Amino acid sequence: MIYRSRRDELENQLNKGALWAVTYGDLMSYLMIFFLMLFSFSVAKTDKTKSRKYEESLANIQRSFGGKVDEKRLERAKAQENESELESNLKESVQASELSGLVQIQSNERKVKLVLTEGVLFGSGRADLKEPAKNVLAPIAAALKKTPNDILIEGHTDDVPIKGGKYASNWELSMARAYSVLQYMAEQGISAKQLAGIGYGEHRPVGDNANAEGRAKNRRIEISLMKTD
Questions:
Q1: How far is 192 from 196, CA to CA, in rounded Å?
Q2: Distance (Å, whole) CA 68 – CA 62
């Protein structure tokens, strides 16, 4: 009886002495998670793909520890994932079709931009779409229709002054061309609330207006899918 009592007392003392280890282990776990989150956040700031993974990982950690998940952040991560998938699909569609020589795709953190030269869509000095232009725009519209994101259509021209005709200036011509593309996109089923058009005239050149090649680059339509912030 005395032996059992001493043994129980010894076990109690040992258990009390081990409690610090449990607390210490929990503290180390929390510190590791904290520094992993800081590291993930610092990397994610410069990489959208890693940013999405960071958001998803953070949500999983919050669930695991019984915390409240930030649904808005999770929705943003899912939206960014959909945008990335759409961007990949657009690039594959363009590269695998006759559009590869007609459409350029550019991308950054703010948007995915498709650049089409004037000759693909319009006749000289005109703003009504050529019939073959619809074959170029149709697959683009079909892809963009799958996203709820805003779509901005920008018209650009060279700096050669317009003499006569329907439009009084390059500015007016660029706006009319942007509207023609916008109208076609709406006819293809893209929601009007997603669409916006703007004309810059000759004021945002990407080529040298001093030569024919540069002027051809400047006469363009840009269709931009705006990404989630």
A1: 8
A2: 6
**CATH superfamily, region 84-226:** OmpA-like domain (3.30.1330.60)
Q: Over the chain (229 residues), what is each successive 10-residue block's mean pLDDT?
A: 57 57 68 70 56 58 57 71 79 72 87 93 94 91 91 97 90 97 97 97 97 96 91
CB 53 within 8 A of CB 44: yes
Q: How far, in Å, CA of 26 to CA of 196, rounded?
A: 53
**14 CB-side CA count, 13 A:** 6
Residue pair 141/189 in contact by the 8 Å Cβ criterion: yes
CA dist 81 to 88, 155, 163, Å?
Answer: 11, 29, 48
Q: Look-up: residue for tokens 């004309």?
A: 199
Nearest Cα residue to 189 out of 130, 148, 136: 148
Beta bridge pairs of residue 135: none
AA identity, residue 141: A
CB proximity list for 205: less than 8 A, separation 6 or greater: 156, 158, 159, 214, 217, 218
The DSSP 8-state label assigned to residue 190 in this structure reads: -
Residues 6+ apart with CB under 8 A from 159: 170, 202, 205, 209, 215, 218
**94-109: b or e for each residue (b if 16 or more CB lie within 10 Å)?**
beeeebeebbebebee
